[in-house]
Every structure is written in structure tokens, then in C-alpha cells.
Design goal:
Layout (H helix, E strand, L loop, with lengths): L2 E8 L8 E9 L2 H10 L2 H16 L6 H9 L7 H17 L4 E3 L5 E3 L3 E9 L11 E3 L8 E4 L2 E2 L11 H13 L2
Antiparallel strand pairs: 1-2, 1-5, 2-3, 3-4, 6-7, 7-8
Length: about 180
Amino acid sequence: MPFTFARVSLQHPNIQKPLEYGWMLKINNLVDLLTFFVEKDWVMRAAVADYFGSIVRNRHFTNPTAQGLSLLCDEDGRGFTQLMSKMNSERFTSMANNLPLYINRVGGWMPEHGCTEHETVVTEKWPESDKIQPRFIQWQGGKHWYVKIGDQDIEVDGQQKWNTKEGAERAYKKWLESH
């Protein structure tokens, strides 16, 4: 389903120059918000995948949402799905109460109030002129490469780490095609 994207800036009373946010998804109604949650919201999917992937593979968390929720769970992980569901429903309710709103590529959002739209386009994918700049990370002494956008880890085909930087770059390109 196509969405409306707007190139947005925000004028803040304490800042002389407007803050440029680039392309953001514009949500005007509950149908579009529900569609976003089903089709485009990878923030919660990434947290769930990291949480259960960490348990199955016995590795550390790489997603801050999963890590934070894990601290609130029982030792054996009971309660994670309930916490995730509660967090997601509260996030949805908060967003629904602030329509219309703008959502950035990493799941952050802000109400329309105070924003200026400079350009809009209706499409199924994020406009190409505002590609996210990924960060390719290799821990000191580590052998794997990770891809981050903002503070979110990229997951492609159930994988969050690659043996080479080139592998991580290919994974990022694949991820970008689906977003």
C-alpha cells in the first residue's frame, strides 16, 4: 500500500534555524496508522527477533528495546510477550491520540504541530533522496560486522551479524530494498 511521505522541518522557539528532519512518513488517520504497524513498523519486530534470538543462540542483546524489556522479565523470560504487547499498544494509543503525525525511518515520531512540509510524495518505499546512512560496526577484537541505523540493529533473513564488512553492506542493501 502506498503511503504519503513528506520532507519536514520543525521550527523550535529556542532555535533560530529550523530543524531539518528530511523525509518522514505522514500518518493522517487510524487506517494508515494500523497499516503502518502491520507493514512498515520494524522497530518491534527487531526487538522480538533480538530477544528470542539472544535466548536461542545464548548471546548478548543488541537491541536496546529488547534489552530494556528483558530487565523487566522473570529470569526465564516469562512476561516478555506481555510487556512487548503492552508497550506496543501504549505506543499505538499515544500515536493515535496525536494524529496527524510524522514517523521517521527508525520508528521515532512527532505530531504535525509546528512542522512545515516542504514536499510530499505518495509511494510504497521511502523516497530515495533521503537514504539512511548506516553504520558498519566491528567490536574491538571481534570478528563479526554489524549494521546499525540510529540505535537499531539491522536484521536480514534472521541474521544480525556478518563475517565480512562486504557481507554487512550486502545485507544493508537487501534491508533497504524492503523498507
